[in-house]
Amino acid sequence: MLAFDGADHALIEDAEIILEGERIVALGPRSERPVDRVEDFGRALIAPGFIDCNALADVDTTILGFSGPSPRGAKSVSRTYAQSRARDVLTPQQQLASARFALSQLLLSGITTALPVTSLLFRRWAEGFDEFAAVAALAEELGIRLVLGPSYRSAVNVTESDGRTGQVVREDEGRSGLAEAIRFAERCETFGPLVSGLLVPSTIETCSDDLLLGTAQAARSLGVPFRLHCCQSLVEAEIVWKRTGRTSIGHLRELGLLDERALLPHAVELGGPDRDPLLVEDDIAALEGTGATIVHCPLVIGRGGRRLDSFASFRERGIRIALGTDTAPPDMLMNLQMGLAMARTIDGPLATPADLYRAATIEAAAAIGRSDLGRLAPGAPADIVVWDLSSPAVQPVFDPLASLFLMPPGGRARDVFVAGRRSVENGRLTGGLAPDAAEIEAIARALLDSFAERHPENRPWQTLFPPAFTQGSAGRPAA
Fold it and tell me: What is the mean pLDDT of the chain?
């Protein structure tokens, strides 16, 4: 068992954990203490549930372009579309089915607390109260802890007729979106004990200063964290620099937004549009001592040929790092494995499994202000994952934590408990029915078919995201 000793995780062999209702009441070496029921998991690792600070909550499209280079601006939006034709591509029912599908996958990979993120590319403008009220209901249905709120923005990036990047700005949309997000956070307790609030301004370049300042003020007033995507693209860096003369981190410092409530995915584009080494150092120094958290999503970043520079150096300077899934498959083990491999290309042995694991548990818990989560300790909520270590596929087991980092792709949690309730049993969900493959395929098709209406040249998705191999005639009979 990976138990919390008051300072860090510690291994206990031949261990037991005793639950009463929603909480852990005792743990330690096996004993003869009287209990109502005993369950023996055999050769297994009993561990705290993961906390996913950028949890994929829809049918993922960041994977488009994975097979090879896409044309420049493949996912761009025309000004005409943004100004007069933008729509919600999916119905409310399809949006909810997407969320149910993704959250189910999170549970199966041992994630017990999720901070959902979805793509705004397929929205009329942003997310809304009613949509996220429906998502919040999934917490009770599936048995997963959710920290969430609807995302909002005051601008959308567009591609102009000459190919340059511009923006369609609607401050009223940003103000109304923030108002809805505040209303959602205020009403979170009505959705049940597994739900708490989060303010989610979309990305730094699509949010005005007034919207960001309003977010920070509301977060302090409500006592909730906020998550703002920044330092994730060159386009963002160029827009922020042109507008403010600062890097994204430098601008957040100027606005006073770098504090313990700030969760910042992804920190891979530091130093402004020119990636100036002096400004990179200034950005990192600006984060030190603020309590702000970098949310690292190794799988989506690594697939794009980028990396966090670097995991160990950020930690050495006292900058908190949490982890997020952000892409398909929504699997924390894959992100732990990718994150460690990427970090070691820079940091060598300074990047350790223990540090990555902390980022997905106790560090993530600190980031969302929940020092009772991400750990197994008396009095803590019973958010527990059981990993099977008896399977031939995970042998040899010489260190239980190392075994998680060495598990074959697709490894799933055997059992998952959230607030003492069993959400996964023997690798299967116990609550709700996840959408079947045909339903998810239909949703994905609707998303794919919508690319042409947004693209400045109305190009269909097949020409924007070609397959790894072109369709040929191999195997066909000769004429």
Answer: 94
